[in-house]
Amino acid sequence: MGKGCLTASKYFLFLFNLIFFLFGAVIMGFGLWLLLDNQSFIVVLSNSVAVKTSCYILIGVGAFSMLLGFLGCLGAIYEIRCLLGLYFACLLLILIAQIAAGALMYFQKDTLNEEMSKIVTKVLENYPGNNSTTEQAWDFIQRNMECCGWSGRMDWSGNMVIINSSQLLFPCSCQNISLVSGNFSDSGFCEAQTPDWPVYDVGCASSVENWLLTNIGVVLGICLGVALIELLGMVLSICLCRNIHTEDYTKVPKY
């Protein structure tokens, strides 16, 4: 590799790792937001150990990506072979982990759906209609996705408020606005004349699945783009590492 190509690869790898560092900061910030924000969807699933663990994993992955980006920048700009080799190995491990996680989620999707159903059913059974943070989050989901319950409206049948009302009360956020007229509430409970509620028939699980199917191209494009970027970083790092024959540690600033 000529000196010009080597220099171009070095600075291109530095720029790539700077972006990678910022990407890690975004992932860590997203994980912290999910964990701490009282208005996010995570509030609905706050009793799930698996979901909280996922948030901590996001935070850990973000922090690790930031560290990896920093090491890559340092290795590229100061031409340190050991850091470039470590960077290549870490990127390879991340790529393998992403493929394994994607395969696991695909083959365990029925188990994930069952776990989500249990969590949401517990939330609905304990829904008192007091407009708490958890209730606001679930009302927002049902209202905007035009769905009722996780599997369907019958998920609400175990709620004690509804049972005590002889099935005449129903969640207002489930209300199908095409079947009612006049003013109506979008949270808490509303009263129906008969147990045949004027609500959406579809469950939120189907709505989420339909959204994913509609946007599958975008989701796959993002996943493929991330994988290609990681492969590019691996190629650049190994090429730069192979063409650095001597290491000048005097370039590295000493503090």
UniProtKB/TrEMBL annotation:
Keyword vocabulary terms for this entry: Membrane, Transmembrane, Transmembrane helix
Keyword hit for Membrane: yes
Topological type in the membrane: Multi-pass membrane protein
Membrane-spanning parts: 12-36, 56-77, 84-107, 216-241
SUPFAM superfamilies the record matches: Tetraspanin
Stated family: Belongs to the tetraspanin (TM4SF) family.
PANTHER family xrefs: CD82 ANTIGEN, TETRASPANIN
Protein name stated in the entry: Tetraspanin
